[in-house]
């Protein structure tokens, strides 16, 4: 089968690989739609270290191609969604309530990291009964695929942010994950959502997805502006959806005492992420810094699909580009170099 | 001043009373809009025992008429909202996180219970700085007044229900509080909201306020139907918004293991409220029964006003009747006897 | 191999059964020590319906006899503890945070319910890597076996009770589970633990295990006495460790507004468990009723073993009787009929 | 009356001040015992900026000398404890659940910060009914005074650390607050408490107060050693009880994915407190950083007194030095310069 791989750091391309075989509890899924993620770029540029001929991609839906002997709830032909994170559910971290950390820190993140990813004709899924979810007929593949990572990661930023109904929330950076965090903040009942973003097309999407105010850090001091918008208080919750030291510092500074900084950004560089000491209340302002990795698993995916089924949000407006799998090289270039105001690139198979 | 009072059990009417005077931390508010609540009926019919010449009403907005010497943040002329519950914030129950229980069980409920209520030209508010909230210009009195009890009580049903994003919720009874619980379930991100209601006009409102499905208990078995709608599982959260033994039993029966029954109904009669033993998992299904009384206080009211300001919901569709204060007797009759498909009765001053 | 079974409702005895075989992820354990539980009696008397030749018992430790091909962390010869509850970790209820409810309500409870129990020379354990725990050398079998159910159930009563440091707790009934709930309340930092019990030998154990006060319901009014002991307030947390309608009612009555009734009692009879309406604050006192089933799994067992290893508690004082497995019939009679002031009966193999 | 003040940065001494007068809700307390805190040193050396003739001290007990007209529960002559933090209970931060932040960040910290402290013959307490607690006869002043800050701060480190029963906890630095955090970890049910400390006398106290293991950072690599002690996993909870950048980094490094770093250290210097990026799981390890300021208020103090009354801990072993108030200058020198292996200095009046 055809697979789009990272050949080595900095180099991608197609190669031929055998169709994977499922273990007793596993499934193999034939890909129908996939999305390119910023993490794919990080990986290619060496963010998680060297890899050789590793199939890229972790956001996909497809049709079950084969299942292992112990799989009970899925059959070949089923149309399914797979979370970007596919936990080992019996692991001690899962028993502790953190399945994304099963098998070690960030260990639930297997696709295009610990094993081949989803940019291929077929891909392998561990523990099919626990990690696949059937897609309802009313939801198309190109919509369902957003649950795998974008909705799950964006929403967990809101969930871990402990947002009260009517609370104030700032979402720092309105990329695809930040936009879905904006949706998540609305879904938790935020009374005012402030999107921090400078790119006009993303500002527009932010308003569409529920931001009540936009703050442009290129023309305004974010800390001052957010305090102004919140009567001098700061927000109940700041969601860091970029993964940059300076943005994280801003998140701490705009969050009120007793509030929560909820991080869903991937910090790709530097030895430290720095907390501004004084604005952090010298460590005594009852502020919480929460972090999370995209929740996966069947239950999570079923719940996200229900959100789509009930038409609470239409994530397909994030799709700025669509390519056939055969054009994957160009597709990856667009995403990697952030060409043409790209937000998300959809790949069809 | 004119006040509409409960003269004794079963008898209401106008009487003249002196304008109250504020203590050092208190305020007196001149009423501009008020709402009649089912609890007013309960009270008149003896639900909280005998009262003599007690001014009725606990949902109101108005203009500050006078403030005590220690009040810092409010001045005569300010347009303000007052929660139905006005806690004593220093009380041990408040320190424990339950201000509605300050001064004893349900002790935050003072209006038309422990002291005169709001159906009068003026009414008294304890601890003005902590219990008043300024109303933004963009929100009319007839909308803001819904925060006092309807939004606060309805929403707390959702908040205590521990609803996951994409979770399933049933709201039992779509009276005004149940309708606002339906809104609350949507505000917390429910993926499917099932409204249980038999009255057509309320079913219609339920759909408008966010119910995805309606179950009519007069034509369907609620337990069967809810299990059918949830793939046999039951809901994550059932909100009891009526206060009837049979409804409470249904709530327990339709909630899945690990789920939450969130009660905001006032149980007015009977020695017991009964939990169905077997469906409760013989006490071992990891099910939680949460209860709450309308949260009050300035912060809560400010957050609810923010929800209105951001146009997340328009509660004024609950207003089926409007009367001037002079017509209070007829207004009360309509509300008390549930005439003319009444939902909420607004009183203007 | 020899197994002690429930032949039919009301009749027990030995029979010969084949040694079970492990599936790919499973283990078979050779029993070394076991405890008889009140639930075994319930089961024999028909509490969970008819069973034929079902091996009894769910509290055991032993030596791994055989493991399936997929088991990674355990080998024959390992000395292991098995929780009374052995969840399916990939199940949706487990993903939802309630592994004891995996496979349906109370579905994690498999031993002597859905499959043969542990009163046999050998028994079968599903998902060995996730459900077994290695016993440290410093802990004897006759101590470790208490983790399986007694510590896990007793402690979860305290954990779900949301006890603040310095809070007040009542534990209703000081049977073995109630005694371990008393220990659990102390482990969570309770400032005053009130044990409700009438049997002198159990009162003595209650004091030894950390009850600061004993209330004897045969000579005192429990509701009055607890209010007296708590300055009229009621307790922060009442743990129901019996499973009786009247005890449950008392638990509600002695819990303060905002407090928690934490149920770990198994309610074996009656159509309803009844909440006293008025003392429950007519459903509005911010009181929570939490319920739980014994948590199982390797992580839980490892943590409980750590509690023993650190000598925080010595549960072996619960052992009032010890019998060899060959004397199981007499042992069961003592436990079943509650002869000789029995608390727990230990079976050695 | 006599007061021990900070005359200016770096200079302390006695001066005469008038006895304060209570406002309507306030009390004035005649000091009987007080403790010197490291924060007093910080303050004198300019940690919170310049102050002129500010009375020092925030840990005290005493006898009520006078009360305002609105005070209901206390009378002159009552023996009382006052928390180091005396919140404004009606403030929005208090309504939000964070009374220590009332009146602005860390605003509940009034003594020797926003107003005169307790090192004087008498001191003023705002909102007496909400901020005083009666001391039971069985507890001496020299013991009760430890509740004001040491127990409250140490314990909140454990409470915010989300420690599971049987969990593993490291407490970094075994000064007086760290030692009480060690006690707090035990009170929450930790299965293994690791105290990090190099001073022998404090190591000894750490063992006495419940540390199961001691790690000496001068002779061992703390990160390696803690991983060794926890089977390579890291701890469930690390409590930072020093307030140093390097210690904070260690806390992050030794905490497992899904675990909590609970900070109770006051960070007195540097622009930033730095999170080690990689060991923090690049912001995605589901790790939480919680912070808190000493909880105050009557309920908290009553609960802490209950812990002492029940003899769960004897904090007086922290008292290494006792001086009469007249010898305050020498007392302060001992505490300030950390002479003679000082832990806590008690002042008697």
Automatic annotation (TrEMBL), chains A, B, C, D:
Annotated keywords: Metal-binding, Oxidoreductase, Zinc
Superkingdom of origin: Bacteria
GO terms for MF: oxidoreductase activity; zinc ion binding
CDD domains for the chain: NADP_ADH
Cofactor: Zn(2+)
Enoyl reductase (ER) domain segment(s): 7-347
Similarity-based family: Belongs to the zinc-containing alcohol dehydrogenase family.
PANTHER family: NADP-DEPENDENT ISOPROPANOL DEHYDROGENASE, ZINC-TYPE ALCOHOL DEHYDROGENASE-LIKE
Name assigned to this protein: Alcohol dehydrogenase
Organism: Streptomyces corchorusii (Streptomyces chibaensis)
């Amino acid at each position: 089968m055809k697979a789009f791989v990272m050949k080595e750091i900095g180099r991608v391309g197609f190669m031929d690989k055998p169709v994977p075989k499922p273990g007793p509890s596993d499934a193999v899924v034939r890909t129908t739609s996939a999305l390119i993620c910023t993490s794919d770029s990080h990986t290619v540029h060496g963010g998680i270290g060297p890899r050789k001929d590793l199939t890229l991609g972790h956001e996909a839906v497809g049709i079950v191609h084969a299942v292992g002997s112990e799989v009970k709830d899925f059959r070949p032909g089923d149309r399914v969604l797979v979370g970007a994170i596919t936990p080992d559910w019996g692991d001690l971290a899962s028993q502790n309530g953190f399945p994304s950390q099963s098998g070690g820190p960030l260990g639930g993140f297997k696709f295009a990291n610990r094993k081949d990813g989803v940019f291929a004709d077929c891909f392998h899924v561990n523990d099919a009964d626990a990690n696949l979810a059937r897609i309802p007929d009313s939801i198309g593949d190109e919509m369902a695929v957003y649950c795998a990572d974008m909705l799950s990661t964006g929403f967990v930023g809101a969930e871990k942010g402990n947002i009260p109904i009517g609370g104030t929330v700032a979402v720092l950076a309105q990329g695809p994950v930040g936009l879905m965090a904006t949706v998540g903040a609305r879904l938790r009942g935020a009374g005012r959502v402030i999107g921090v973003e400078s790119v006009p097309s993303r500002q527009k999407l932010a308003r569409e997805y529920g931001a009540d105010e936009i703050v442009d850090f290129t023309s305004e001091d974010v800390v001052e502006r957010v305090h102004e918008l919140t009567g001098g208080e700061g927000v109940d919750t700041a969601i860091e959806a970029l993964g940059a030291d300076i943005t994280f510092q801003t998140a701490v500074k705009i969050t009120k005492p007793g509030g929560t900084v909820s991080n869903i950004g991937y910090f790709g560089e530097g030895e430290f992420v720095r907390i501004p000491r004084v604005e952090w209340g010298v460590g005594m302002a009852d502020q919480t810094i929460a972090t999370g990795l995209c929740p996966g698993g069947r239950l999570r995916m079923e719940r996200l699909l229900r959100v789509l089924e009930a038409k609470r949000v239409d994530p397909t407006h994030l799709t700025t580009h669509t390519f056939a799998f055969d054009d994957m090289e160009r597709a990856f270039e667009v995403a990697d170099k952030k060409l043409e105001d790209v937000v998300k690139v959809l790949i069809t198979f």
